[in-house]
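chain below, 1411 aa
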Amino acid sequence: ADVLWLVGFAATEGGTKESKDEFSALCAELEKEGVLSRKLLALSLETESVPAAVCQVAQLKKKRNQVKTKARYTITRYNLLRENTEGFSKLISLFDKLAGLDFEPKATEEQLRSTEETLADDVVRLAGFDHLCPNRMLSIALEVYELRLMEERTCQLAQPVLGLLKRFPPKRVTEVVTFQLLAHAPLPPSREGMKSAPQQTPPTPPSRASQFLAVSALVQKGLVDIDVLWNYLDPSDATLKKSGAQLLSMHDEEAASVTKVDLGSSSSAKDVDTFDATLQEFNRGGNQKVRLAAGLISVNAWRHAHRVLAHLSQYCKPALNHFVRSALCDLLKWIIQPLIASVAPVVGGRKPDTTGPSMATTFGCMRRFEFGLEAAEAADEGAAQDAAKNGAHAPGETNGTSGPSSVPLALRPTADLEEGLSMIRMLLEHLEYFLHTDLILLTSLWRVVLVYLNKKKEQQADGAPVEMEDRVVALVYRHLLPAASLVPNNPHLGDIMWSVMQQLSIFQRFMIYSCWETMYDNFLLKLAFERTKSATKQVLKRVVANAERRDFIAHQSHFHICKLCHSNPIPCIETMLRDVEIGFNVNMIQPYVECTNRCSDMTADIMAYVLARSCAKPVSPQRQFLNQATATLSPWLVGLGEFIGRFYKKHPNTDLVGLLTVVTKRISSEAAEVCKPNGDEPMLPAAEYRGESLIRIILESLIEHVGGLLTVSDMNQEQLVCLAGGPRLKGESVSIGKKEDTVKKDRARQALLNALINLNLAPVLWNSLSQQRHHFLSEEFAEKHGAAGGLKLLGLLFDGNHECFLKLTEFLCQACSRDKYAALLPPMQQVFSMFEPSLAFLAIRHGLPSFGRPLNASGEPSPEPPAITELERCVRLILPKNFEDEGLTVNFYMAFWRLSLQDIFTPSEGYERAGQSMQAAQKEMDAKRKDMERRDRDFAQSREAKAMKREMAKLQEFHTKLQEEHLQQKLNHKQVLARLEEEKLKWFRKPSPAATATFISEMIRPRVLTSYSDALFCCHFIKMLIKLKTHGFQLLDFYNSWTVMLSQCIRSCSEREATIFGVFLRDMMAYIVHLRKDEATFAAESKGNPCFHRNYYEDPAAPEWTSFQDIRRGHSKWEGRIFKAIFSGLASEEWMERRNTLLLLSQTHEAFPLVEKYARAALLAIDNMREKEEFTDLKTLAASLCVKLKAQKDRWVDRQPTEKEGSRRTDDSAGKKGSTSTSSGPKSGLPSSTSKAQAAGEGKDRDRDRDRDRAAGDKDKAAVDDGQAEKRSRSRRVGDDGHKDHKSSGKEAKESKESSRDSKAVVIKDGKEPKESSREHKDSGGDRKRSSAETRGHDDRSDKRRRSDREDAHGRSGGTSGYSSHQPRNALTSVPEYRGSQSEYTRGGRSGGGYTSSRHSDAYIGRSSRR
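prediction:
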């Protein structure tokens, strides 16, 4: 038969029709001859190969299918009438003995096995003898097995029952188990005459945890076929899919309705708890499939449980069910318990407590995880035996697998970290992030990650931040952090989380936070996100600056925000920042920062991530840094910058690396855009300025708030004087309110400094700011952004760039020691290549050795260090070759630039004033304390008294440190003066007008517009030269030169520079006002001082001294020159020039103008502007300035006489002309009341001035024509300023021109005008319009200043440009000659900042190319 089967299979499968016919004929012959019967042939052959002569194939197939169907769906039932009921009593007795093999004393293994086999045989015999139903016997055995499994002690007594169950066929056991699970209770019958009850779904049978636990154990042992059982369990897959989809849709609707207000429906129209009720129903749902999955997990049948969970996850989220979730959590705790116990000293710092309860005490219900280990060991033994028989190793895993499989048969607890992490990931793939209900497990998993990081850290010897592997990163952001989002506020959990996150690098932390943020789109997390946002909005609505204690929400807003941030910090922080960026009330920024007072360190770190992400967002039409229409910063950027600064000041321990990295990259990105991409052509910026570099507002805010570098935009006189003091005096002069905690302030400053130093950001920022500075002043920028508002945009960008540079440099100088700062600097030559000299010296000044050299052991000054030698080398590279030929020395140049304001001036009055104010505050506070103690005996123990005591201690500490700073500065000032006294004779090689002009153009002019401190330094440096009686410095010639050279800066400076120049102008003119106050004061100042020589002398054997009348007449002349530049600015058509002029006069009104004719002219011009100006800001500024100028009327000098006084003075002067006498000495141009020769010289001077004016007429006319042409071309090229977009009508423009003519005419009184004034007003129009416009690449600003200075110096002096050391010059009648070379003088074109309305080219770019 077997041979015939083989032949038939070959003939049927691969044979032809002839072979099949031959096989059928063979079978017919064998049946005919009686070799094989027909029945045997039908049973032996395949169905397809049975011949038709033996049996019909179709009929055979039908019969076979019927038999299979009957066998599958038919349960054999026994005749219960034949059963002997007494047999069940005996059966239960045998089962009791079988399940109670607990002998005393303990039996051996052989005895137990023998007894178990005997009892099992007795059960089988009893079933046959009493005709007992096998199904009922099997059901009783299953119930006994279930009871034994649920006992608290070990379940070894269930093993004998299990041995009995193994004697039954697995098919029969599966059928009985299925029958027990599907035993539905019948529906109650309906009564007659009543309406029948509606058709209902059969109820789910009552389920017990022990029942599914027993079934799962049988599945693990292989006694129940889970594939067969699964098909009979409720509910169906379609029902699961429908309920899962319904739950997801309800979740999305609930999340969308959290922040939505439906005004058209009442509160009763919708049940707000619908979703929560549905979720709880699914959570507590005990359907059979879910309970079976939980049972499989409970017995550690992981391979089967993995299949079931993977199948359920296609239709719903099984971990949302309480039974599945608790089983997975318990299994995970059972696995990691040895790992936690082995590393307990590492985690807690104490010895592990082995006597305490284990994690098993936290299990949700009875678990039998060891069953899976027994099955796995049995499988391993079987695999080993098979391998031994085959002579090879068993393939696949050894964890209870008999073949290759990625899923183990069971999981086992482990103390190995790598193995534990792999099993944790395997379980969390099914548990997802729904472990929030088990805080013990959640905290234990964070501890496991902490152990992992500690071991990684031990392997690293450099102490760098630990780099977490990708698998652990996924574990953290996919499971642990989202689970924490679903946990209500738990500070303990937050501390454990931060103990893990703080060991990572900031970049990996921010990456994890960003991945965590993407998880908020998932189920339940989205709802938590929206609810947190809504709760945050409700809290922020109640936030006020000074909340009352009875308002629990407002007063405790920081507590409520802290609670929200414990679980979901990202949505809470985003909601807060959205309010800040809207900018509805900038005064609420500080209260918002105070709301984060109690936030944890992890919340602060996440705030840093959100702030860095906000700064990294690209520019978009909805999120612009710059308002293109008004050329102002966007309010959201300003608000965000202030919030960032105040937040980091409140939380100084928060890492600044991420934010500073983003800000620096963004600042540098704009500088990179103007670089040459391929070395061929530069990249041109977009037509609309994007303003990427404006993110520097964030850096400035950090420096101001975190670095403690407080700045005031409009400083008063006291604050300006305090700029010469140390950091404490500067901060005291601008601070308001209570004293800050110095410890916290120093900690915040050090944190910012460490971030800048560790990332080496200072050189990068300097380089970026330098490139942007040159770009703003380039031709490309002027061409691209020279349309409407271009000039105002340039002012905003240029001033902002310069302010950022000053703040960054000043912060580094205050926070770093001299040596540490020097280490931060790039090479000096690189610094000078990046910046013009004024900014380069500002950057390196703090890193240079102190100018006041201490004495060595021998009493001699210490030698100069190598840094000064290198500096001198760099200085000689940037100076013109003929610098020393002009009369100055390099030593003088270096001394000027090395010195700071603190070196040459000590504000003792500022220190005394600050000390007195603090002493007064202490006395006031002490008096208040004593008064409160008299009223209340217990006041000393109150909170207010303790706070007052702390405040007094702060004041005392600050006062002590302020005094120490004062003493240290006085000592430094003394050393500096001593060295200057030694070196003053080496400064002027050849005193001459050329030396004075070089001093102004190469030293004063570049530095005076750099900052307020530098402007004051220039003033005090001039006073110091006078105080030191420096030979070669002449006061009259200096004032005569700088009023010509520097007055042109008024028309080519920015708003910030105009204010700074106003400070310089006020102090310089105030000194002249001081000298001319009375003759005694002047005599005391000028006695024996060579700075008051009237002329330059090589051998001052018999010098001619400056008289008191010289100072008075010089003052009038210098004010006239300055007024000419001021008047042209007031009459300008450019909004920015008019505004800058008003700002300058707001600073100088106390010292300029004080000559009556110029003061009246300025007052009338400003009053006309106040009446006719169309722009509100200029009108307000002019009105304020009018009040200030009118208040100075009593201090006006050189008042114009009335008619009677004028005639009397004329007669007196005529009478005095006859009594004048002559005197010997050098030729002078200044008049004297006691010398006829001086009177005659005065007449000659007037004639010479008149001839000089005529000779210069042609030059002035050509210059005027050239300036008008240039101005017309400039207007077409650059365009008007932003404020000119709202240009007035023709009538208003005509009124403005008439007002300008009226202002010019006010100088002329009674048809007469002073010669000096008429000459200045005659040239004022030409000076305003002079510009070169000869070559495209030439610097227009430098040409304009140089031409104006040269014309004032040469054209108006009658062409006298030579200088002879034997022929002394008069400083008032003969303006000193400046260098004739245009290329050399162009170096002073930029002078440390400024621009005109023409193309904004930087003179220093040309200089670097010349080098």
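The chain has 63 helices and two strands. The CA atoms of residues 150 and 366 lie 7 Å apart.
thats it, cya
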